[in-house]
Design a protein that fits this description.
This protein is 74% helix and 0% strand. The chain is built from 4 helices and no strands. The radius of gyration is 26 Å and the shape is flat.
Amino acid sequence: MLTNYLPALIFLGVAIGLASILLVLGTGLGRYFSRAPYDAEKLSAYECGFEAFEETRMKFDVRYYLVAILFIVFDLEIAFLFPWAVALDSIGGFGLISMGIFLGILIVGFIYEWKKGALEWD
């Protein structure tokens, strides 16, 4: 039974070993080649070449998140449509009806969001 897990354990061991070696090398070489590791220029906040005008931890409007969630939902819809379109010949009428129901539910959700004003950006 252990032979079934042996390739996964080998992969895990190699991954942990490689990550450890790279971390040690990066830390060691970074300290060796860096002339002034803690100078003011390296520790300053970098944003488009100039200092930030105001506090960077500001609240976002909830509508931003709603639009992002809607984008993900409709992006996943497209991800489901491509394999369905390729396999439509083999799945037949059942697949067509199933996708019609799926798209119908998504259209009802889209209309609901539209009526609630989630897509308005004022």
